[in-house]
Amino acid sequence: MKILDGGLELVPGYRFAAVECGIRKQGRLDFCIIAADSPCNAAGMFTTNKIYAAPVLLCRERVDNEVRAILINATNANACTGDEGYNNAVLLTRETAKLLDAPKDSVLMASTGIIGHQLPVKKMQDSVPALIGALLRDNGALIPKAIMTTDTYPKSFAVEFAASTGNYRIAGTAKGSGMIAPNMATMLSFVISDCPVEKHSLKSIFKRCIDNTINSITIDGDMSTNDTALILSPVSGNCIKSEADLADFESALFKVLYELSRMLVMDAEGATKFVKVQVEGARSNEDAKLAAKAIAESLLVKTAFFGKDPNWGRIACAAGYSGALIEEKTLSIYIEDIQLLKKGVPCGFDKKTVEDALAKREFSVLVDIGMGDGKAQFLTSDISYDYVRINAEYST
Amino acid sequence: MKILDGGLELVPGYRFAAVECGIRKQGRLDFCIIAADSPCNAAGMFTTNKIYAAPVLLCRERVDNEVRAILINATNANACTGDEGYNNAVLLTRETAKLLDAPKDSVLMASTGIIGHQLPVKKMQDSVPALIGALLRDNGALIPKAIMTTDTYPKSFAVEFAASTGNYRIAGTAKGSGMIAPNMATMLSFVISDCPVEKHSLKSIFKRCIDNTINSITIDGDMSTNDTALILSPVSGNCIKSEADLADFESALFKVLYELSRMLVMDAEGATKFVKVQVEGARSNEDAKLAAKAIAESLLVKTAFFGKDPNWGRIACAAGYSGALIEEKTLSIYIEDIQLLKKGVPCGFDKKTVEDALAKREFSVLVDIGMGDGKAQFLTSDISYDYVRINAEYST
After folding, report:
1. CB neighbours (10 Å) of residue B1?
2. What is the DSSP string of B248-315?
3. Is pLDDT above 90 for B301?
4. Min CA distance, B118 vs chain A (Å)?
5. What is the CA radius of gyration of chain B?
6. What's the rounded Cα separation, in Å, for the pair B266 and B314?
7. Distance from CA of B244 to the nearest CA of A (A)
8. B-chain residues within 8 Å CB-CB of A345?
9. Binding-face residues of A in 257-296 toward B, CB within 8 A
10. Is the CB of B317 less than 8 angstroms away from the CB of A388?
11. Longest distance between any two alpha carbons in chain B, whole Å
């Protein structure tokens, strides 16, 4: 696998466009499209929030169709907008399909932004011809910019890998991890590949990769109404099929999604640290994930990271209430390679050495539950003054 | 029911003492005792954290015994201290029982403070005679002071109520809601009454009251290794038994615990607001509690409270991921008596009026799920800059 210097534009078979539609603000790209030259298989992972946006409903209905494009808007979530919101999403995607000369239900949609406001549908409808007219392969770098909300930089990652049938590429973009800014919520991620993969394989591989990357990061534990991750892969009679090829595809996809997740955490509001929380020795992988998630989401753990405090008591405490099977007597905790707790007994450690480890921009925490083989990893950030400032000072 | 001007000292049949033992710091009360003049029935509610402190284990073992006293220390949690920690708690309580001329397993213990350090047991053992020697009914006000950690003021509340067999009193004290400061964790609450109640009634009434008061508050969602709530009531042949009397006892106990909970939330680290989150119309009370808890714990909701932002989208979103059965089409949201969302449709509301409501020190949020009769309430605070400062700057 080779890491490429670039983003979506490096994948053959796709074109891109973005415009300043003025959906909520003037002077920013807020409406964009990823269009495939030929029909694609798609797979999607969506918010599990029971309050979900109109475009999420539309994607759920259409993700099994042959897909030709993804239409995306920022600054308005089209959530809590009822039938009118859903009808607006249908209208805009059908208009797009018509101009692309594609089947009417072959366009997906994703939205991010304020909740509870109807889309300015007339203005957006009027922008669709300009979007379609501007489609160019070289426009790939516009998409990460157009989908940003509180992100401080556009995020994309691309790789190339060799299958038995030739070399293929996978590239993705993402924005805004967790439910970050008020009403400007939402994690969106879009991945494209020129590697043809059968639909059922694409679905299961995408789910596994998302579960261990984007679904294993946390900023504040909140889950948006609009979270959406989509992948497109061309429909073809020559799909990769061997186990080895599918494994290479999965590794390459995992790399793209892992690096995007890392960027999301690093760019989380107010974050100053990127922390890998690893849990081993749990009774099951599920138990390990419960513990890793509780530690990664604990406000007290996260403020301790910000304060460079080797506070293993908070880590033990969060593991203890996670719901995972845990006993004090078998619990060990490390920061980087320094052991702080050994089977329930506090270790003597050099405070300065641990503080130096915690002073780094990236470090890892390892919790060994000592009861089995279950493993999991969560990626998290610290919580700083800026997190509170950004989230309190935003005004609806 | 009459609210009394005072605390624990107003309940006949109990004596109190506190000393500066120097457990971790000099110059503060850190070791104290509540002693009953005669044997008591007890009931207790404890942390559900799988990593729990030695005194919690000891209380679980002894809470069904006839109880004579509760020994309490601050500044050291006696958690993650293994067998040695447990043996220390046994030693100190047996020493106390001996000097009280009480059965050896009739003394309970609670601790709060740093995790992972052994108690200075010799020093504490040497202080037990001084504690016992200082026991006085008038010393009631020392207990709330001696158990404080990051609390900014001592908390107690007392009431008197009339039963068919005479007037009785209930008084309680509490400290530190949620797992607040690093290693200085823990909610402790102690309630005493001169009203004799049979053990099984005492247990069920105490559980119900705690569930709807102290177990329905949240500061940061973290749960300590040491959380303990205990109630004592004298063993007697004249226990109150009629439904009416037991209901009056329960109302009075609820009032004491509710007011203590309110003080805990108001005094939460960095909090500037006290918010009652009420959920109605859920399919069940359990569903209502899930939704109320998710809203009360959402960082985004809490920072919006701090920012005085009428951000109903964040409230809807938290309810949506709570696990409760919810549909957008039946969801309504109010702040004070101002409706923001009506069956999924955003209401026009005067922003200034809502901001004025949010500017108050106390206000309520009502979420009507519109699907049944289930109800629940959670008490919460906002999250401010000071929360981050207090929790980041503390150094282990």
Report:
1. 14
2. HHHHHHHHHHHHHHHHHHHTSTT---EEEEEEEEESSHHHHHHHHHHHHH-HHHHHHHHTT---HHHH
3. no
4. 10
5. 22
6. 22
7. 38
8. 82
9. none
10. no
11. 69
Whether residue B23 has pLDDT greater than 50: yes
**Averaged over B239-250, what is the pLDDT?**
97
Give CA–CA dist B264/B173, Å, rounded.
Answer: 10
Q: What does the pLDDT average to over A109-114?
A: 92
**Structure-derived torsion over alpha carbons of residues B49, B52, B55, B59, reported in degrees to the nearest 10:** 40
CA angle, residues B128, B131, B137, in degrees to nearest 5: 150
| ipTM given for this complex | 0.75
DSSP annotation string for A259-320: HHHHHHHHTSTT---EEEEEEEEESSHHHHHHHHHHHHH-HHHHHHHHTT---HHHHHHHHH
Enter the pTM of the model.
Answer: 0.81
pLDDT grade for A396, boundaries at 50, 70 and 90: very low
Domain boundaries, chain B: 2-266, 274-393
**Residue B394: what pLDDT?**
47
Which residues in chain A have Cβ-Cβ distances shorter than 8 Å to B328? Answer: 51, 80, 82
Q: State the amino acid at position B37 in one-letter form.
A: D
A50, A112, A383: best mutation site toward chain B, by most B Cβ within 10 Å?
Answer: A50
- For helices A199-211 and A243-266, the axis angle rounded to 10 degrees is 40
For residue range B270-299, list pLDDT tens digits in order: 778 889 999 999 999 999 999 999 999 887
Task: Read off the pLDDT of residues A179-229 as tens digits, 9 standing for 90 and up.
Answer: 443 333 578 999 999 999 999 999 999 999 998 888 888 655 567 888 999
Q: Give the Cα separation of B232 and B203 in Å (integer).
A: 10
Judged by a CB distance cut-off of 8 A, whether residue B161 touches chain A is no
In chain B, which residues have their Cβ closer than 8 Å to the Cβ of A387? 303, 388
How long, in residues, is chain B? 396
Q: Do B222 and A82 touch (CB under 8 A)?
A: no
The confidence score (pLDDT) of residue A279 equals: 97
Tokens found for residue B208: 């119900």
CA–CA dist A33, A129 (Å, integer): 11
Dump strand ranges (E) for chain B.
2-4, 14-19, 31-46, 67-73, 107-111, 155-163, 166-175, 188-193, 217-218, 228-234, 274-282, 332-335, 338-342, 345-346, 362-368, 374-381
- Asked if A52 has any chain B CB less than 8 Å from its own CB, the reply is yes
Which residue in chain A is spatially nearest to B304 when comparing CA positions? A392
Class of domain A2-266: alpha beta
Task: List the CATH code of the domain at A274-393.
Answer: 3.10.20.340
**Mean of pLDDT values over A346-350:** 87
Instruction: Specify whether the CB–CB gap between A371 and A394 falls below 8 A.
Output: no
| Residue B391 pLDDT greater than 90, yes or no | no
pLDDT of B367 over the 60 cut: yes
pLDDT tens figures, A260-279: 998 988 887 677 888 999 99
For residue B172, pLDDT beyond 80? yes
* Residue B75 pLDDT greater than 50, yes or no: yes
Rounded Cα–Cα distance for residues A339 and A346 (Å): 9
Size of interface A-B (CB pairs under 8 A): 208
B380 is catalytic: no
Mapped onto helix, strand or coil, the DSSP state of residue A26 is coil
- What residues of chain B, 110 to 149, have a C-beta less than 8 Å from chain A? 114-117
With a CB cutoff of 8 Å and minimum separation 6, the contacts of A38 are A13, A234, A235
Q: Which one of B186, B213, B218, B380 is the catalytic residue?
A: B186
